[in-house]
Specification:
The chain has about 300 residues and is an alpha/beta fold. It contains nine helices and twelve strands. Strands 2-1-3-4-5-10 form a six-stranded parallel β-sheet, with helices on both faces.
Amino acid sequence: MNKRILLTGADGQLGQSILRESNKFPSFTFIPTDQHNLDITNPQEVSNELDKIKPDYIINTAAYTNVDGAESDYDTALAINSTAVNNLAVECKKRGIFLVHFSTDYVFSGKKKEPYNTHAKCAPLNVYGKTKWLGEQAILAINPNGLLIRTSWVFSIFNTNFVKTMISLASKKEELSIIKDQIGQPTSAHDLASFTLNFLFQNQPTGLDTIHFSNKGICSWHEFASEIIYKSYDLNIIQKKPLINAVTSEVYPQKATRPKNSVLDISDTETRFDIDIRSWKDALDDVLVLISKAKQESING
């Protein structure tokens, strides 16, 4: 039987990645929405839309993700990352809709030496992390059937992200200074989208669960940037390699404090779902090949 999926945040990089994967799942009907046609911060609008759509699942990829911007725009970040999540969770609980929601590694303080498992204490250091954590708390309090997926350092072929920013800067600058003392695990939005849709396709999920998903491999932002730039040069995405300086967080101050260690423990996810999540380097290769192809096509007209 065909299942209906309401997708929020469909114009974001994860939303677009899910839509890109959607043709592999003909038994799902996708109803994509974004802030222009569904204001999920408005509870009445959410209720009215669900009356019309009657989805089996909601995949909420809508999020305020500007980490530094959130420091001076708390109300907007709170509305999208927490209030809207509360609205969706309330309606999903009332109607028996399964909710998939995405959270972040930034709910953790980064003071631990080892990777963070799903039971680790949340202690966000910045407004973005705090509002995402409040969204998590809303879901846990309401307790709909659902899956809460924490992820980290997301990149893709879509929109603005670290990979595309590094490519852009490398094309303009002779020298880059990239932070070396913050570590995490880059995550391909394409891999996360594929996992999410396969989860819904293969399972008859009930209850509320929290899991971690990122690609394998720990790196610093400096190591991530270096890999992006060297591979982009090899693929002729960029014509020169700038000097990449490794600097500390103190030398490169940012408005929002970031955790020094935001590595997520994904071993439980691999065990429970019997999957072998690939490395971020392999996932990056695929994204850069797509970027290279798109650049070549634009040159060729």
